[in-house]
Amino acid sequence: MTLYTTAFNEDDGPSVSIDGFCELEDFSLATYHKLKKLGLAPREMCIPGLSRTVRITAKARREWHEKMAQLQEDQAEVLKQESAHRRAIATVAARSPNHISKIRKRRASAS
Prior knowledge:
With about 110 residues, the chain is mainly alpha-helical. It has one domain (about 10-110). The protein has helices spanning about 20-25, 30-35, 60-95, 100-110, and strands at about 45, 50-55. A hairpin with a 2-residue loop joins strand 1 (about 45) and strand 2 (about 50-55). The termini are far apart.
């Protein structure tokens, strides 16, 4: 859990509990804990003296949305690169004399 302090800004809106965050984002508490385990949960604020009270500020939620959007873009780029790599490998494999399409032709011509 990350402890941090920020100045309160009324434009940020109210902070929410973890349950409130999950409700706003429309996913389960289990999904939140999976995200937290992966290091992908929003920053949490602990209220001093109330060790079990955890809040997520509107700013932390906005930053989390930005982080998720960036991860999605990064993942799309990786998939694009992997797809191009697979196509290149397939092209090389198809040119090989040991490719299945060429083996069938050799068998047909040998008969």
